[in-house]
Design brief:
The complex is a heterodimer of chains A (about 290) and B (about 350). Chain A has two helices and 14 strands. Chain A has about 290 residues and is α+β, with helices and mostly antiparallel strands. Chain A has two domains: about 60 residues; about 200 residues, Immunoglobulin-like (Sandwich), CATH 2.60.40. In chain A, strands 1, 2, 3, 4, 5, 6, 7, 8, 9, 10, 11, 12, 13 and 14 form a 14-stranded mixed β-sheet that branches. The two termini of chain A are about 25 Å apart. Chain B is an alpha+beta fold and about 350 residues long. Chain B is about 25% helix and about 10% strand. A four-stranded mixed β-sheet of chain B has the order 8-1-10-9. A two-stranded antiparallel sheet of chain B has the order 2-3. In chain B, strands 4-5 form a two-stranded antiparallel sheet. In chain B, a hairpin with a 6-residue loop joins strand 4 and strand 5. The longest helix of chain B has 17 residues. Chain B is globular, with a radius of gyration of 21 Å. Chain B starts with a helix and ends in a 9-residue tail after the last helix. In chain B, about 45% of the residues are buried. The mean pLDDT of chain B is about 95. Classes of the chains: A alpha+beta (about 290), B alpha+beta (about 350). At the A-B interface, loops of A face helix 6 of B. The complex binds iron/sulfur cluster (SF4) (2 copies). The site of one iron/sulfur cluster (SF4) has 14 residues of chain B, from helix 2 and strand 3. One iron/sulfur cluster (SF4) binds next to helix 2 and strand 3 of chain B. Chain B: Pfam families: Fer4_11 (PF13247).
Amino acid sequence: MREDDGSVPDRTPESTLGSKLSREHVAALALVVTVVASAALLPTLADARPAYEIPVDYQQSSADLSEPSGEAWDSVPAASVPLSSAGASVPAADETSVESVRVEVARTNERLYLRLSWADATTDTSTDEISGFADAVAVQLPANQSERPPIAMGSTSNRVNVWYWSGTGEHEALLAGGPGTTTEIDEPTLRANATHEDGRWTVVFSRSMASDRANVTDVSPNRDMDVALAVWNGSNMERSGRKATSEWYYLALGPDTGGPPYEAILWSVAGLAIVFTTLVTIEGIRRTRGE
Amino acid sequence: MSQSDDSTVDLAEGIDHQVAMVMDLNKCIGCQTCTIACKTNWTESGGREYMYWNNVETKPGSGYPRDWEEMGGGWDESGEERTPGDLPDREDYGRAWDFNHEAIMYEGSDEPLRPLENADWGPNWDEDEGAGEYPNSYYFYLPRICNHCTHPSCVEACPRSAIYKREEDGIVLVDQDRCRGYRYCVEGCPYKKVFYNAETKTSEKCIFCYPRIEGEGPEGEVRPPSCAEDCPPQLRHVGFLDDEDGPIHKLVNEYEVAVRLHPEYRTEPNVYYIPPYAPPQTSEGGETLDAERIPRDYLEELFGPKVNEALNTISRERDRVRRGEESELMEILSTVNNDDQYRLEVFDDA
Ligand code: SF4
Ligand code: SF4
């Protein structure tokens, strides 16, 4: 429908937009176009960000970021990450119970903080009985970031780091190159703190951003980084490959972190709308004047 | 040894030789010396208190852990898919009891020595109960260790390959550095012969006393596993399944009188049993009847259909001896020569 295609002026008067409309009409139409465009964009804007992005909030000081209920977290945007069974080859691998995890990420110049929170009514903190398994959560990162590793624990040629926290209170850093290969690595800067309140676990992992050690993820403040998550519900006998996992997401550490990418998109859209409206208005006026 | 090169014995893939044990159930007196020999060697402390890598249970009976035969594990009929298995509860094994030693030894109490509480189940709790009605009740003892199976579902169950069958002799071991305590092997073993250690957070099991068979035992000599060596009636043969000159090969493959426990689990155990042939039934009046005391059905349930031929062969050979004839089989079964019973160095110069 050429008539609606106002941005391509046609020299045939009958078919041009402006020729049949008064100046008022043009202004009204421009307004409608802007409003419709904004309305169409609104839901995306409310949902905030591109798929698979987890925003990273920069903070001057670490304050109480290492505390699961630290106030410094109040200003950090949250992402909700859906989880599903990892489909590993262990018995009952599909019987997992946690469906999503809330993720908030902050960083200072020195450290990266991840706050993970998920619903689990039972606190399974002991592995002292033969059928006792502990709740757990893990963060998976590429060991080096040249290429995205396979989601299931990486591969021999493209390994992953895993930060693992267990309800028993222990946490550890692991290196893996495929399912069943996790091996503990020495990572003295990794910390984890957890609370269980109102039927939810909240666990904060933190680690030094930089690493110059082989096979230990170096977190660059200037570059997005892949991340995947896993949660285990101990009382459902979840352990190893029987776990609820996410797809690969990424931490938005890259150049846009000063203002999240969706703001940039919003401004581009708004800018285009303004240019469009102006062009339509000018053309309308020109035509109305019979130029 | 030359014989292994053209061996007709089926071994697991990648295994040079396979340790094996034959236990003659007709000789077991249920003394638990084997159990204690094993325990003092390997499972006295450190989270192993509840474990009996060697246990002796009364059959018919619930066994150790309680009702282990109903807990699944092993392989399905195709032999390729594992059958899901359960984790036993601590109560099924029996908790280590606390006794009133303190009161009796130090506080002058004159109450009898007894467990303080929860003494309502334990290994061989149903000792000698058995089944059947007087005067034809019956029971026998069944000593059990890990069978170091040829097709071990415990090994297949581990997502980390932490439990493995070692190449030189097929002994199944848990690599304590690789194990992360997931307990899939505990679920997966139909004989419930892998145990979870809640202190070390790893799984542990019978190691066939490998340091002893490697000559690292007492006096630096090659010795059979402690459960075998310490058994008062010396009812176990220990050696290699593929030692075709040895008694195990004869009992298992030639005479076929040594049979597997629950062959339908399809893990292909390398511990074999000479089935029990109890005295015949008697009448109320005490006369001997021409009827077997332990129902064949029951023995078949435990040892599969091959138990029938095994029992028939044994009674045939016993009759030969009664008639004054020679029987190689009965000689093997009644030997008192340890050198015949324990053949662990046959492949040493291979
Ligand atoms: S008896 Fe159980 S633990 Fe031992 S090898 Fe067989 S399956 Fe594994
Ligand atoms: S030591 Fe020998 S006789 Fe005693 S219970 Fe063990 S296997 Fe039976």
